[in-house]
Structures are given as C-alpha cells and as structure tokens.
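User: I'll paste a sequence; please echo it back and then give the predicted structure.

Assistant: Echoing your sequence first, then the prediction.
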Amino acid sequence: MRPKQFLGLTGEKTLFQMTLQRLSGLMDPLAPIVVANDEHRFLVADQCLQMGVTPGALLLEPVARNTAPAIAAAALAALDLAEDPVLLVLPSDHVFANTQAFEAAVRSGQEAALQGALVTFGIVPTSPETGYGYVKAGGKAGSGAGTNFALPVEAFVEKPDLATAQSYVESGNYFWNSGMFMFRASTFLGELGRHQPEMLGACKEAFSRSKRDLDFIRLDKESFSSSPSDSIDYALMEKTDRAVVVPLDAGWSDVGAWSAVWQVQPQDELGNGSRGDTLMIDSRNSYAHADHRLVALVGVDNLVVVETSDAVLVAHKDRAQDVKRVVEALKAAGRSEAELHREVFRPWGAYDSIHAGERHQVKRITVKPGARLSLQMHHHRAEHWVVVRGTARVTIGEEVRLVSENQSVYIPVGVKHCLENPGKVAIELIEVQSGGYLGEDDIVRFDDKYGRA
C-alpha cells in the first residue's frame, strides 16, 4: 500500500495535497519545497500537478537520514530561491479541523521566527496520550484560537506512561510534539552548524554536488550518506537555547493509525465511519474504507476494514497501530507486497497492473499529453496495445502510425517500439503482455526523453 500521505483518507484529496492546499491561506507564501525519496518522485510530481502547484524545488533523498538532514537540504535550497526566507516545516500527513486556528498559529510562529527563534508547534492535548512525545513550555497557554503566542521551551520529553501523561495534561504547560517547525533558513543552518557541524557539512556538500533530473534535484548520494542520521528534535531542538513553542488548538490529528482515520471521519448514529462504496448492517464503532469495490460489514463491533488495489486489511480498532507488524512479516517472508504497488507512476504517466498470470499480464496504462515512453524492446515478451481513449503515435520497428480509440497494435518479441501522446487529452490503453518472463527489468532502452538508463 502507498504511504498514507499519498492516500485520500478523509476526502478526495490526499493528505499531501491537503497540506499543499493548507498553504494557500497564508500570506504570500513562496512556492513550496518538497523533500521526497526517489521511489515516490513521480507520484509527488503528479499530485502537485493535480493541485496546480509548481514546487520551488523538489529534492530527492538518495538515502533516508531522518528529518534534520532533510530540513537542512531544504533550507539550503530555500536560500537559492529567496533572501533568507522564513521556513514553515510541515509533515505531509496531518489533518486539521480548524484551518483558521492553524493559520493564526503560523502567524504567531512567523513573528517569533523573524526575531531569531526556532519555533515548534505544540498541540494542546485533549487526552493523556501515551503515543506522542511532549514539549514542556515555560508557562501555560490560554484557550481558543486567539492565544497562539510563543512560549519558551523548557524540555522535550519522550512518550510517557499513562499516569505521567495524565499529569502532563493536568499541568497545562505540556503539549503534544507535532513535528512542525518554523524559523529563518539562516537561523536553522547557523544553529545546526553550532550543534551538528558534521551534519551541516555533509548536507552542504550533498546540495552543492546535486544534479538536476527533469523537475527534480538529486542530492549527491555519497555526501548525503555521510551525514549522521537524526531527527530535528534530537539533533537541534533539544540543544538550542532559541527554541520556543506556539500552542496550537486546531483539531489536529497525525492520522497515525486507521483508528485515527475513524476518529476524524463523520460517523453515523452507531459510531461507524466510512469512505467509498460501503454498507454497514448491525455494526457499531467501525470503519470501512473501499477503493475499488463494495465493502460490507455485518454484525461487527470496533473493526477496521480497508480495501485497496494492493491488499485488504481487517483489524480490531484497538490493534490498528499494529499494522506495521504486518509489513514486517511481509518483508521477513520476502513478499513483494511490502515493496511494490499495483499502481506505479512514471514520468510519462502511470500503469495499473490489473491481472497477472503464469505467462501473461494485463495493465491499464495512462500517458499524459505530450509525454512519450522510451524507444525500447523486450527479450522475453510480446505486447498487445488496445487504445480505449485518445490517439497514440506508435512506433514499431521502422513503421510509425496513429492508433485511435478501439484500435490495437501488436509488438512482437525483440522489436523496437515506442508510444507517445501528441494530443491534448490523456491516452488510456490496455496492454496485454505474454511470454516466459514478464519482469520490469526486461526493458532495453535505446532512447528516452527522461534520461533513464
């Protein structure tokens, strides 16, 4: 399954797209800087395109090094776009019920950041949660959206036990650690240089040696890999004397489990939440998520049922946090479901693997206007293409022809071929592969618009 930020959990837009949309209410924001890993680059680009957003920079991490190096790379990129801008660092998988309160908190954070502070946003706790870290402030926040002033940070504390969490909530000066931050680019980099000089040096080198790849900036792998791996909390915020916290009471959720998705969904009179084509009969306090087909729950309580193109999950709502154990088990068993998704994004569009058999495979392929697949051949498979929408320009060997809706072509094994979209609408086609080996690595590219090997 895709990471949660790329899923539409609470509406038609994905959590990532909702984060982009949330920026539109802020005053004169610069184009966003997005940090992603290589695997999701085309998915990120496609979801930005759907929102009409052109990132100021789209940085690709060659390896995971946690949040501090990622933010450092983004800060360096920001200094190339503007003169010492104030950065708002947002995870892309959060939900806010009250956008106005969020915007008010950001304005308070901006005032503090302009004065040289490193701002974190502390969620006003609604319950003694043991699954979150906490930020202890040197003072207490008031109530309501108009009290988003900055307070000095006394300490960052680890996830507590229930009794300790209860005491935190009762004290009034502890907040959930949201993972959201705000500061001037120069302030962050200066403090990082004081407390983590090795990390800053590695990130500077990785950015200076980065390479452009289409719309992406690829950080240098060797340099970025040499950086210590650490979160911004441990690497900097716990060490600096410039940290302040802005209380945030905006109906926040990090949607950390499917039970959290249930909490932020509208619920019926029996406490059921749902998304997609679902049917609830004599069921209570449950959540059903349907991407492609009807999901019906009959006579159950406190269940989470999730249907996607990749898998189906059934779990007790109280055990929804344990989904990561399923992923661990899949990885331990060498199962492809842990790494591969049925829908795959490419620079020219996407394909959806509809069906796979022993010697055949069926895909639904979408090609964006003006896009072009590479000139390629396969050693082990033949292909049939049936166009169901739009008009494609197809090259097979030395022949070039236009193929329109309801027309098809056949590509024999070992023959060079290419497909491009010369029109103004996306092309959709059904591809039927047949042969003794159908792996994606059976591609020999002779020419590629996107510079792939």
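Confidence is low (pLDDT under 50) at residues 143-147. The domain at 343-447 is CATH 2.60.120.10 (Jelly Rolls).
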